[in-house]
Every structure is written in C-alpha cells, then in structure tokens.
Amino acid sequence: QGVYPIAPRRAEGCGGGGSHRTSRQFDDLRPECLLTSLVQVNPKGWVPTMPVSPLSDQSYAEAFGVSALLQLLDYRDALDHNRFVNVSLNDASVKPRNWSSAVNDLGGLVSATPLSNRPKKLNSDSNVQALHHLAQTRNGGYEEEDDADYDYAYSSHVPLEDRDEGEDGRGGKPPIAPLVPGSRGESSFAATPPPLRRACWLEPDSNSFRVRGKTYKKDRKKFNAGPPVFRLAAVDIVETPVNIYTGMAAHPRERVQQSLARGDLPPFMFVVNIALPGPPCFHMVYYYAVDDVSQIDGTNGTPFSKLAQSFFFGESDEFRDRTFKLIPQIVEGNFLVRKAVGSTPCIMGTKIKQLHLRDPSPNPRYFELLLDTGSDSVAKGVIRLVLGYAKSIVVDMAFLLEGNDESTLPERVMGCLRLRDVEFKNLRFVDTP
Predict the structure, then answer these.
(1) Are strands 95-96 and 346-347 parallel, antiparallel or unpaired?
(2) 301 Cβ neighbours under 8 A, 6+ residues apart
(3) Are 427 and 282 in contact (CB under 8 A)?
(4) Would you say 353 and 375 are in contact if contact means Cβ atoms under 8 Å apart?
(5) Is the dihedral of CA 215, 347, 359, 316 positive or negative?
(6) Is the pLDDT assigned to residue 17 strictly greater than 50?
(7) What is the pTM of this model?
(8) In the sheet that 268-276 helps form, which strands lie side by side, from edge to edge?
(9) What DSSP designation does 160 have?
C-alpha cells in the first residue's frame, strides 16, 4: 500500500532553518511542492526477516528496503537534475573559476586549494578530476546553459499515425506517407531496403528544441525552433562486420544509390551516420530530404541558407567540425542514462572524429556526415551504456548548424528524430561495399 502526501512550500522566512534557495531563478519560475512516498509492505512470509545464507549479514527485508530507497533517490535526482549544469569529464580546455568566489558560493565548505597545486597522484584520480570539473565553467564544444534547450511542453506532440491507440496529441501535421514502394518517390526511398521497424522512430515536434535567437550574442535568449528545414525520410539501424567509413550514401546496395538508380531521389539528401564500434558493429543512419535546394545553397537570402551553403558545398572541413551541433534529450528513461547523455548542445567535431562524405558528381545530390563514436573513449563508454538501456528509453535528437553572429542567426533545426524502445537484435545486416 502506498500513500503520497503533498506538502506546499513554507512561506518565505517562516519555520525552521534550511530555507536557503539553491536556484532563485528556477524557484521563481517553477513553484514547488514536496511529494513524500509512504509505503507499507506485507510480504506474507515470502520475504524472510532473519538473515539467511549466503546473505549472512543482510536479510531479504533489508535488501528490499535498500532497493526501494535507491528508487526514491533516483526520482529525487531526476526531479533535481535540471537545476544543475551537466559537467563533461572529458574537457581538456576548461577555464578555472575564481576559487574564492566558488568557496563563498558553497559557504566555505570546500578547500580553496586549486587541484593543480595538489599532489599529482591525486590529480590522476578520475574522482578528483570530476571534482575539478565541478568547480570550473565549461567550454570546448559544449554550450553554456543560459536558457533551457528542451521544452517538454511539446514533447508529446507526435503525428497521428505515430500515436499508440487512444493516445492524445496535436493534430494537423501532414501524415507521413506509408512505406509502400512505388506510391511516391519518398515512400520508395524509405521502403527499399527495409528501414528500422516503424514503431521505433518518428519525427517529433521540433519546437521541443530551443535554439539561439537573432540577438543571442547580446541577450543570450533562446526560442522554440519552429518547423525543421529538412524532412525525415527514413531511419536505418544496421549491423555490419566492421564499421564502414566510406558511408552508407555511397554504398551501392543502400537506399541513396538505389533511389538514384530509380530516379526518385529527392533533390538533395542530408545523411547523419553514427558509427558504433564493435563487435558487433552498428550504424545508426538518419536520412533527411531537402525538397527546396535554395534553402541550402545560399540563394534564398536567409541566414541559415548562407551558413548551409558553406557547410554542404564549401571546402573547409574545419568549418564543418566547428559548426555541426547536436542537441540530445532523453525524454523517458533511466536517470543514469540521462545524466550520461545530458541535454547540452554539443559541437560534435570538437569531441569525436567527424567524416564529411560528399557526392563527387558535378551536381551533388547528397551529403553524409559520419560520427565515429569509437574515436573517443568517453563517447564509446556513453554509447555502450545507452545501448544497454535502449529497449526502455525514448531519446530526441536535433541537428543544426551553430550561428555565432547576427549574419548566421537565428539558428534553425535542420532535422530532428525520436527513437524509442530500440532493440539491437535481429537488425538488418549490411556487408561492406
């Protein structure tokens, strides 16, 4: 049996101590209450209360209590995690804060001795490195969290055909064409070869993501992204004998080349390919259709078109490495995974190796960006953690190009994606070209 008392906040200045606010801005925007879970369990003999071998120093009843407590702590941490900055443990280019100010912030409860002045044996320990990062501001590819990067108010807005039976949501969005070969070009593209099971992916409302506004460099304001520039056409998650670094768009047996041969490829395709090292090896491949090429060749005069022209058709890979941005968000899932993945926008080319695979023809029809997650040990560990929980999480991703001045702002989401309940078993196998 469970009881859930809900207690409002004390009035300012009332009651006992401990009324210090950890985040005044957060509290002002989001009123809080305290939810307490009181649980009474009657095991009726199934859970022994006396120690039993081999658990000679702990009874099942105690173990049950510990497990329940850990679950409640998980809920508490999940509710609190948005209060705090997600800290990367792999940033070599962070700048230290003013330590005296950090000590004042924490009420003098931490030592003001910089870690760099302590014995090297301690500095080599990963736990001390973590504490060091907690006392520093972040840069080097992660964006400062001046404003929320994800708006949960839009997270449940999905196309009608992607809802479970009886699920509520926003209507009015044109339905995705059924995957029937020959019904129209996009459907043939998506259906051949067979994509990832349709129940596992959809195109979420891109308004869920908050991006830099026109005057972001002055006021640090972010806004809901509005509609994406590109259209999600297909999703593949395939197993391969080795990671295929020549990409999937150029693979003769995969959908881009087959669609080119049929003559039904959309005007331009942007392909995001995330390579997961093995064994077994996987490629997560997302295909976005560009129906109006003026949106990316600089001819329509918008800031995004100007930025996209340099990204897709320019010669500088260094520019691409410092421009392509990913915003991840675990919408549903284990708290450990949410903390590992984070939700802070990241310039991927500064964190992992990024390959830019361009159509060599005089009239380019595709551009593939391959993210080699095996090139970084931290990224590899996070990916393996996420794969372990993939069957029980829902993750949203948005891909965009970072704007850094008013000539390239506001930012636009190129494309977004939701993956849900993906099982990395019995996937389509793709051999090397």
Answers:
(1) unpaired
(2) none
(3) yes
(4) yes
(5) positive
(6) no
(7) 0.66
(8) 353-358, 366-372, 268-276, 281-290, 231-240, 428-429
(9) G
Confidence of residue 277 (pLDDT cuts 50, 70, 90): very high
When pLDDT is cut at 50, 70 and 90, the band that residue 162 belongs to is: low
Q: How far apart are CA 266 and CA 98, in angstroms?
A: 53
What would the two tokens of residue 71 be? 């679950």
Q: How far apart are CA 246 and CA 243, in angstroms?
A: 9
Q: Which residue has the tokens 């030592």?
A: 111
Quick one: which H or E segment has residue 216? helix 216-219
* Lookup: tokens for 348: 């991927």
Structure tokens, 44 = 């009726």
User: How are beta strands 324-332 and 281-290 bridged, if at all?
Assistant: unpaired
Q: Is the distance from CB of 311 to CB of 323 less than 8 angstroms?
A: yes
Cis, peptide link before residue 54, omega less than 30° from 0:
yes
Smallest CA-to-CA distance from 341 within 332, 349, 351, 329 is with 329
| Per-residue CA distances from 186 to 232, 240, 292 (Å) | 10, 25, 14
